[in-house]
Amino acid sequence: MRVLGVDPGLTRCGVGVVEGVAGRPLTLLGVGVVRTPADADLGHRLVAIEQGLEQWLDEHRPEYVAVERVFSQHNVRTVMGTAQASAVALLCASRRGIPVALHTPSEVKAAVTGSGRADKAQVGAMVTRLLRLAEPPRPADAADALALAICHIWRAPAQNRLQQAVALHAAHATKGRTA
């Protein structure tokens, strides 16, 4: 499974591509950051993020895109920028028919470190270890994008089985009512 992880942000949008399956060693295929100038017009910044993400999609051809689910923060301006960058990532993937998964920050932290309350340094250290890197990816947005991809690789099979079980249960329940 090849996954593009996206840690959305207007100034720094972390991106990372990881390939592998749960229970096997993972492979880093690429990591970086799509940057936009803080003083640029919002529309131009969103276009720059779109162009950057499109390049990553063209180059790495992921099967899935994992994006950090936007959560409420105290700073409304920050959360709005994150939501806008997140929407661009969803748009780029959906336009190509690539399935998108949203993962919460605590879900990603728990998957990668074992604790949903891990700090950025712990996440970076575990990403470094899991991908057998010499040092943590910088900036932290890049490490977070890799953590999102890893989280999706590890959790997607279980989530798919759960969705299939729910669908099967619903089908049986509907069949029982119509009989």
Strands, helices and their partners?
Blueprint: E1 2-7, E2 12-19, E3 27-35, H1 42-60, E4 64-68, H2 76-95, E5 100-103, H3 105-113, H4 120-130, H5 140-178
Parallel strand pairs: 1-4, 4-5
Antiparallel strand pairs: 1-2, 2-3
Binding site for Mg(2+) 1: 7, 141
Family: Belongs to the RuvC family.
Organism: Streptomyces griseomycini
What does this structure look like?
Helices cover 55% and strands 18% of the residues. It is an alpha/beta fold and 179 residues long. The chain has a single domain, classed as Nucleotidyltransferase, domain 5 (2-Layer Sandwich). Strand 2 and strand 3 (27-35) form a beta hairpin. The radius of gyration is 17 Å and the shape is globular. 36% of the residues are buried.
Task: Write a brief caption for the model.
This protein is α/β, with parallel strands linked by helices and 179 residues long. It has helices spanning 42-60, 76-95, 105-113, 120-130, 140-178; strands at residues 2-7, 12-19, 27-35, 64-68, 100-103. The chain has a single domain (2-178), classed as Nucleotidyltransferase, domain 5 (2-Layer Sandwich).
Q: Which outline best applies?
A: globular
β-sheet strand percentage: 15-25%
- CATH fold field value: Nucleotidyltransferase, domain 5
Low-pLDDT ranges = none
Note the run of SSEs as H and E: EEEHEHEHHH
Instruction: Give the beta-strand count.
Output: 5
Helix and strand composition category:
alpha/beta
Number of domains: 1
What's the helix count?
A: 5
Instruction: Estimate percent helicity.
Output: 40-55%
Largest sheet: 5 strands, mixed
What would you say the CATH architecture is? 2-Layer Sandwich
| The top level CATH class name | Alpha Beta
Query: Which assembly state applies to the chains in this document?
Result: single chain
Mean pLDDT: 92
